[in-house]
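Q: Given only this backbone (208 positions), what sequence would you predict?
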């Protein structure tokens, strides 16, 4: 290899180094929900991260059909296809979820059930919030669902216990040191898994 070839190889951008495309899913559609506060806190961290590009999917805005029909009218079919294309484009997912009755919201389950291959062989991280449990019971249920969908759940989470008291009226965390450290760990793991699985899918398409 001559020096010119070596230099071009060293400096040329590669797909491996491309920013990770992360779909951030807001799981709550309840009136008066706290989800935007937590999601905005999380996005403030990803917006500063040069290795991540985000696409926010808010279940309150997706307007997916509730009935899982094989034959949909044209507007519903177009909506399902458009959301599916965004999920397929993602390299990784972050689910921002509350806990409803010891589990996760029905609107999120509806989103998960509409798609299959879009989730496969991609990492999923969780940012949860709630009362005493901090949404962690919802996260544990979601790990089982994503395993069935062939997703790879990230071990470390960010969870906010008694979330309403942790943020001020401007959406700033009152004691950010702990959550900031937790979100750094989560993003480090998500980027590692996201890149590893993206590279693996390029070499050998997943056939689960």
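A: Predicted residues:
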């Amino acid at each position: 290899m001559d020096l010119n070839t070596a230099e071009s190889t060293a400096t040329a951008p590669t797909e491996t180094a491309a920013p990770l495309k992360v779909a951030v899913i807001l799981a709550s559609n309840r009136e008066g929900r706290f989800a935007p506060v937590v999601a905005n806190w999380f996005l403030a961290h990803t917006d500063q991260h040069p290795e991540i590009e985000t696409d926010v999917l808010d279940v309150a805005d997706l307007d997916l059909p509730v009935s899982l029909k094989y034959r949909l009218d044209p507007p519903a079919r177009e909506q399902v296809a458009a959301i599916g294309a965004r999920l397929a484009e993602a390299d990784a997912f972050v689910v921002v979820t509350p806990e409803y009755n010891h589990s996760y919201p029905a609107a999120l389950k509806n989103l998960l059930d509409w798609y299959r291959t879009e989730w496969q062989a991609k990492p999923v991280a969780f940012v949860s919030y709630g009362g005493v449990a901090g949404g962690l019971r919802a996260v544990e249920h979601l790990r089982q669902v994503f395993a069935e969908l062939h997703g790879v759940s990230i071990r470390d989470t960010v969870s906010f216990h008694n979330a309403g008291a942790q943020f001020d009226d401007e959406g700033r965390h009152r004691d950010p040191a702990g959550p900031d450290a937790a979100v750094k760990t989560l993003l480090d793991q998500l980027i590692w898994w996201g890149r590893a699985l993206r590279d693996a899918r390029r070499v050998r398409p997943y056939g689960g």
